[in-house]
Amino acid sequence: MPADYALDKAAQDLLFRSARTANTFTDEPVNDAQVEDIYDLMKWAPTSFNQQPLRVVLVRSGQARDNLVSLMWDNNQEKTRNAPLVAVLAADTQFTEHMPTQFPVFPQAADVFFGEKQVREESASFNAALQVGYFILGVRAIGLAAGPMSGFDVDGVNREFFSDGRHRALAVVNIGKPGQDAWYDRLPRLGYDQVVSTV
Amino acid sequence: MPADYALDKAAQDLLFRSARTANTFTDEPVNDAQVEDIYDLMKWAPTSFNQQPLRVVLVRSGQARDNLVSLMWDNNQEKTRNAPLVAVLAADTQFTEHMPTQFPVFPQAADVFFGEKQVREESASFNAALQVGYFILGVRAIGLAAGPMSGFDVDGVNREFFSDGRHRALAVVNIGKPGQDAWYDRLPRLGYDQVVSTV
After folding, report:
1. Is residue B23 part of a domain?
2. Is A11 part of any domain?
3. Within a domain: A20
4. Which of residues 131-160 of A touch B (CB under 8 A)?
5. CA–CA separation, B69 vs A145, rounded Å?
6. pLDDT tens digits, residue range A23-57?
7. Which of B101, B136, B144 sits opposite A45 (nearest CB)?
8. From CA B49, how far away is CA B53, in angstroms rounded?
9. By C-alpha distance, which of B86, B89, B90, B107 is closest to B98?
10. pTM of the prediction?
11. Would residue A151 count as lying in a domain?
12. How many domains does chain B contain in total?
């Protein structure tokens, strides 16, 4: 275990300090092998009871892209139209189906802890959101830029891409190499003392 | 912008592949400067409208630690008692107070998009969960191990640590250098085809 050293400065910059939400992209395609590389990194980051509720729909066909664009708000439409790859990220509220294989140390967890619909759905939303964060950093880790967006018609996206009713769309993420004027001005961040306190 | 290269293998291992949830820790303390280092990395990762709803309470005093331990489930109690540092991570449902300084490009966003309580609370929960993910990877980035836990009395923790009623506890994270027998056996992960589909 590499527990004694920290990430070097270039890697810190790549993931956190210099990385930015991209609003434009080059035409260079993003292929499935790259998405596999992203997944093969981010899948290892932790979730409660190893539940892994995140599901990803890659929007590649022209018709699916058109439908998604029409469900995005305002200037997210143009970004979503032009990105090399767009991924819809959602929570599978029936993640418990996989617990017998994914949490074999206590396979009854599905019933014991997540038998109640509300508890199961809240857990799916929280843990899939964790995984959205891991996914964004995974995109950056393989040298691409992410353009995550929350401004879209959630019910419409659920109907269009998850007709089974068990999924909840959480974010739409544009992926590619950053293009011309890809960044807005950097926004500030809250100070340490505004976020962290001690008891 | 370092957009052309990917994170090297050692850094990928540190953050994702080799990193594990630690269940025991050495006695080596975790000081405030290290928590500042974690924050100074994770704060840059993106949230919707730059809302940054995550709040962190570091539990250092003996009494506060005892109170927190009593609110943890089962074997999370011992882990929480013995970790060098324990952080309670929560969502500030009134993050909108900071939007005039944090989202100056459209300061009306607080009212226009987040005027409704339910929308505001859902957005706080989603974005704070993203930031919990960033925080866990930030802990790893500075060379420490994280032990995130969701098994605790959420209402009790809210009452004990957030008596103002505006915060929602999301996770409790033990932080330190991994100790003896720190890891359980690695659990499996869902396959790419179980998680990613294409339309």
Report:
1. no
2. no
3. no
4. 131-134, 136-138, 140-146, 148, 150-151
5. 41
6. 999 999 999 999 999 999 999 999 999 999 999 99
7. B136
8. 11
9. B107
10. 0.96
11. yes
12. 1
